[in-house]
Description:
The structure holds 2 protein chains of 2 kinds. By secondary structure, chain A is an alpha+beta fold. Chain A is 38% helix and 24% strand. Chain A contains 7 helices and 14 strands. Chain A has helices at 12-19, 91-112, 118-131, 133-137, 180-190, 197-214, 244-265, and strands spanning 41-42, 45-50, 53-58, 62-64, 67-70, 76-80, 83-86, 89-90, 145-150, 155-161, 167-170, 173-176, 230-235, 238-241. In chain A, the strands form 3 sheets. A 5-stranded antiparallel β-sheet of chain A has the order 12-2-3-13-14, with helices on one face. In chain A, strands 6-7-9-10-11 form a 5-stranded antiparallel β-sheet. Chain A is globular and about 65 Å long. Chain B is of the alpha+beta class. Chain B has a single domain, classed as Aminohydrolase, N-terminal nucleophile (Ntn) domain (Glutamine Phosphoribosylpyrophosphate, subunit 1, domain 1, 4-Layer Sandwich). Chain B has a 5-stranded antiparallel β-sheet, with helices on one face. In chain B, strands 3-4-5-6-7 form a 5-stranded antiparallel β-sheet. In chain B, helix 5 packs across helix 6 (223-230). The A-B interface holds A 1, 3-5, 7-8, 12, 15-16, 19-20, 23, 99-100, 103, 106-107, 110-111, 113 and B 50, 53-55, 75-76, 78-80, 82-87, 101, 104-105, 216.
Amino acid sequence: MRFRTEYQGSSFSEFLAVDHPNQIPKFELDSRGLAQLSIPHGTTVLAFKYEDGVMVAGDRLATEGHRVASRDVKKVYPTDSHSLIAIAGAAGPCIEMARLMRIELEHYEKIEGEALELDGKANKLSQMIRANLPAAMQGLVVVPLFAGYDLRRHSGRLWKFDVTGGRYEETEFEATGSGGLYARESLKKVHKNRVGLDGALSMAVEALVDAADEDRATGGIDVVRGIFPIINYCTAGGIEKVSDAKIEEIYRAIMADRSDDAGGAA
Amino acid sequence: MSAPFYVSPEQVMADKAEYARKGISRGKPSIVIEFDGGVLLMAENPSRLSKIGEIYDRIAFAGVGKFSEFDQLRKIGVRYADMKGYTYCRDDVRANALANAYSQAIGDAFTRELKPLEVEAIVAEVGDDELAGHENNAIFRIQFDGSISDHEGFCVIGGAAEDLTTFLNDEYEAKLPLGETMTLGRRALQRGSDGAPLVEPENLEICVLERSRQGRKFRRLPADMIKKELGV
């Protein structure tokens, strides 16, 4: 590994591009599209604001066409102490982008001695998505959600992106991936920015359950195998992960509530 | 026509070393000390330009001498470590390899360049009890000519380093708690400031590599915590 470097700035991905161009993830092919290749895809992720900050959640299923590629992939990643990325799309490039984003933020913080602003982080991610556009044109789409707690403005914030790197800040909630539409519909009915942690957890689990119910590619809660969605929340104090036991408890309460309704209607 | 001057290699090296030593001895020292919960890095530094920095999860850097030169070395170290961690895995980034790379680069500059680097640096690594074979701390000192040495317990760089080393040789005890180690470090730095009044806590830059922390173990201590630990 070379010690002296050409690049003198504070961005890790630019450093890769200048000094180690072979190491930068590129998923383009010249002639034939990658769409017809069978590649695992991640499905539903969502993020919304609540009273103390933001909550970010994702199911665990990755699909390859109509088959299950993996039942327990991770789609929600902390990128630093106060921001998270949730990924949907072609699993390989998605996970690599989440990893690169984390290194990018840490690298900047170490070189400059100060972390980026939350806006700056979102902007950087949008540039990384734009750089992936040639691969996206061939079917390797990466469309993450980015969320975090803005320590200067004292509030949770979240962004969605399109394949061209377009960056849109959301004021309430957003969900993406194949089951994103259903998760959004579910959140639309119940979401409020002023709701406490317990209320927020119920909303997150319910939205994921609804998405899994309507969308075949979204993984439901698997109590038999013990596979639960990943739910993280980010507040002024940092990022916390919700325990599987807590998710199971909320899930069972929702199921009990729904089966009572069904019984009543019959 | 006058004949070109001949200067013997010995003389060139001696002059360069003399020049570098002078530059380094003008600055204040930095010290690294092991304590019961990890590794402590401290420097007397009234400015806002840091002499101590984070390199990777378990590795920190302390430099003395010319700021622009050692800060450049720190950044090269961060790039090297992040690149290695990105290519392989986070546990593959070790202080030993980094210190060797520094030694090569500084040694190269010393022999090739007209002006040697006026810097000295310490690369410190805290052990991780959960990784077999990685449990021990490591402290490496790299000097202006690229010579490298490893140290146990403590290490001093910069002006008056020998004096401070003698002091710490007498006073250092293994596995002291953080507060006592900081007080010891402050007393040592005091000897470097030529009998001036006691080093103010505001003028201390103190960072720790904490063994018990998850992930990134480096932490810069805020002024109020430094005062609390020093009991002032």
